[in-house]
Amino acid sequence: MIRYYTRLAVLSLRQTPLLTGLMVGTIGVGIGVFMAALTVYYLMANNPISWKSERLYAVQLDSWDPAEPWDDERPELAPWELTWRDAMALRESDLPLRQAAMYKVSIVVQSEREGVKPFQTVARVTDGNFFALFDIPFVYGSAWDRAVDDAGQFQVVISRKMNEELFGGEDSVGRTVRIQDKPFVVAGVTETWNPVPKFYDVNNGPFDDAEEVFVPMGVGRALELYSAGNTNCWKDEEVRTYQQFLESECVWWQYWVELPDVAQRDAYQDYLDQYVSEQKTLGRFPRPLNNQLSNVAEWLDVRRVVRRDNQVLVVLSFLFLGVCLFNTIGLMLTKFLGKAPHIGIRRALGASRAAVFRQQLVEVGAIGVAGGIAGLCLAWLSLAGIRKLFPGYEELAQLDLTLVGTAIAASILTTLVAGLYPVRRVCATAPARYLRLQ
Amino acid sequence: MEFGPIWRAAMRNRTGPLLIAVQIALTLAVLVNGVFIIQQRIERITRDTGMDVENIITVQSFGFGEEFDKNESVRQDLEALRAIPGVVAATSTQHVPLSGSGWGNSIKPAPGEDAPTLNGVRYFMNTQAVESLGVTLAEGRGFDADDIEYPEDVGGAPRQVILTRAWADELFPEGGALGKAIYDNLDRPSTVIGILERMHGAWVSYDKLENVMLIPWVIPGRATYYLVRTEPGQRDRIMPQVEETLSRINGQRVVKGLETHEEIKAASYEGDRGMAIILAVVTALMVAVTAVGIVGLASFSVRQRVKQIGTRRAIGARRRDIVRYFLLENWLVTTGGVVAGSVAAVAVNYWLVTRYELERLDPLYVPAGIVVIWVLGLLAVAGPARRAARISPAVATRTV
Q: What confidence tens digit (pLDDT) does each residue in A132-178 have?
């Protein structure tokens, strides 16, 4: 029966090509625009480490200025980053299952390879635990160990892509690459890892690519590397040498811990509070006690990673879809009332009201499918446009299977909602009225 | 006027007009808010930066070799860059204005704990700083060769600085900042030797964007930027020469980030620009869809009323009367829509203001939007109405 209904639907739609085109077009435009806005939102709001999101926590300590809060608009917040002293102190705790302090630096890399010119790039100074903490697999070798961190030995972990550039993709473990004109021994090569958003450091662009070079903690100090990310200071203190900078109240370190359950989370919170209270007796931490642990989802929320403009666009494009929906209802009324005489005959010949209703719904569904496909094409085009407008959105403006499915489903649903009233109305008319006209 | 009959006729077949009215209401709400947001973004993007953004080239140099001498390198580079024909001026700096990277700074008009602390951004620049930026010096002077210092760290206070008018006025509301001393957080003084009419700093969303300080320093570290200002229209020709010149002079460094200042500014305003364009497209599509809807409804009602129109024509209605009938009917529907839409527009704006801290709608946008929708409605219905007017009175007699 469904095949027969489908054939009837196609026939009927072909009888009124302009009207059909307008219906499909309206649904398509509405779905296309809505899906494009939703796609960007959905990818911005993505949790790139969802399987571990509940266990990973960003650490914030309120070491800020007694005179004013870190953020005037949200005074309840502590600074995003930690001081060097606090980051070093927290590393001594064995409460977290894993933990890593980190910041990014700007470096110049020289390759031994012929024809590779020295180039500047961004690296991450961090603990060897960084990789296990964030589940980053290795292609070759492994992370360095704690002793390397503390000694500031010149070891390095590079990404698969960087290994491709520097060593042509070979197993480069044990080989040397020059960073800041110093010889660094490759300890490991990671699999491609580029979380979107870059949850572990959302300063300076949450949709930037992950670093391709990682060096041990002690290297930052040995080479006196300042942060290429954000450094914020409040205290009136003399900061001239690197040592003074390290000991200052400037915040520039990100800190992540893995706490497998609530009990450990609470224990760690107590530890932080106790640590800060101790520091207060030494004259530091002049603000009220305010230490925060945010898991990945909470962190992305508090950092407002999803741009407000994008939320506004989703709402406006939803209103636009609404306009398209009402427009389609109007078009369908025209379409189905035009079919009334035809339906009258079918009813007179014995088709039940329910059968006629089902048949018309198939027709509506067909419009929905066609609209969905048109919508997908338009969404794809819009996303290409968005990639052009926002060069940094490469990763954010991609259709995936979930979204393709959502688009088709949304389109059919929209059309069915739109079609319900016109179809019911046409099915409700008495057949006799149209028979008389024949 | 035949409001009465039109209204009663419309009420007998409510669904179509109601659908269009709802569509118009939603369209007005999005149109008004969309255009308002677009207008604001355009205003932001086209603000006067104070600089000659169109004619500035930026480039970055990273030294890496053991023998690399930053101070010597900066001296050589600037000399070579300034010698390129068509270059007006060149200076070194630690960051590029409008780029989103910069060093924030706070200063005071007087020493001591009680003095107010005022925030802005600072740039360490060289001789020709004023000329390289293309900013207007309102008072005082730019940096001479004698002013340039090569400190061993950035923790000290400069002897001399240039301030923007905005920051100077904030520090010294009574005026006369030129020649006065300003103080850093450790109460170390610097003398104001020049005041700039206007210059934008690092972060385009920062509320102190116009608070900028220029310091005649070449700071330690291996990296530096250069700003190269060219004669109007010469920028694109000179760009490759800039890279080539720097690469030739010194092999102990990486030359990177060869960009026009225009590109850097555009990247900082990418979000605003993108939002404005997307909103413009969505709003235009919405208006188009609504227009098509009005045409569709009017055509449908014309088709349904062929006999009625024929009869009216037969008993003496002129073509003009038929056109007027449809225009009036449509106007009634549109007006119903815009009344509801005005409320919706204000509601949407209220929600945007409270939820997303956008700005409050300028109320004038609502009547402007209403006029646009009225005109749109009349244009959309004109075609079907004219077709209705062409219906022959003879139709009335055919199927009786």
A: 999 999 999 999 999 999 898 999 999 999 999 999 999 999 999 99
Determine which of A24, A203, A207, A312 to mutate to test the interface with B (most B C-beta atoms within 10 Å): A312
Tell whether B209 and B323 lie within a shared domain: no
How close, in Å, is residue B190 to chain A by CA atoms?
16
| Extents of the domains making up chain A | 2-45+307-437, 56-302
> Are B293 and B182 in the same domain?
no
pLDDT tens readout for residues A285-296: 999 999 999 999
Q: Which residue has the tokens 């509801």?
A: B340
Name residue B308's amino acid. Answer: Q
Nearest to B62 among A108, A309, A330 (CB): A108
Any domain includes B165: yes
B382 and B284 inside one domain:
yes
Distances (CA, A) of B222 to A97, A120, B70: 39, 12, 6
List the one residue out of A87, A159, A160, A98 whose CA is nearest residue A129.
A98
ipTM of the shown complex: 0.84
- A107 burial type by CB count under 10 A (0-12 exposed, 13-18 middle, 19+ buried): buried
Same domain, B319 and B365: yes
- Asked, for residue B262, whether it belongs to a domain, the answer is no
Strand order from edge to edge, sheet including B223-230: B87-93, B223-230, B56-63, B253-260
pTM: 0.87
B251-297 residue pLDDT tens: 888 898 899 999 999 999 998 999 999 999 999 999 999 998 888 88
CB contact under 8 Å between B289 and A119, yes or no, is: no
Tell me if B357 and A308 make a contact (CB, 8 A cut-off): yes
- Provide the pLDDT for residue B298: 84
Within 8 A of A374 by CB-CB distance, chain B residues are none
Could you tell me how many helices (H) and strands (E) chain A has, helices first?
15, 10
How many domains does chain B contain in total?
2
Torsion of CA B17, B18, B20, B23, to 10 degrees: 170
Q: Are residues B35 and B179 in the same domain?
A: no
User: Taking CB atoms and an 8 Å cut-off, how many pairs form between chains A and B?
Assistant: 133
Partner B contacted by A240 (CB < 8 A):
yes
Does residue B239 sit in the same domain as residue B310?
no
Q: B299: distance to nearest CA of chain A, Å?
A: 9
Together in a domain, B116 and B188: yes
Same domain, B274 and B350: yes
Task: Say whether residue A318 is in contact with chain B using an 8 A CB cutoff.
Answer: no
Q: Quick check: is B85 in a domain?
A: yes
Residues of A in contact with B16 (CB under 8 A): 330, 333
DSSP B179-237: T-EEE-TT--EEEEEEEES----S-TT-TTTT-EEEE-B--SSSEEEEEEEESTT-HHH
Are B64 and A391 an interchain contact pair (Cβ–Cβ within 8 Å)?
no
Could you tell me the residue range of the domain that residue B222 belongs to?
Answer: 65-251
**Within a domain: residue B222?**
yes
A197-212 mean pLDDT: 93
**Domain end (from B222, B251, B280):** B251
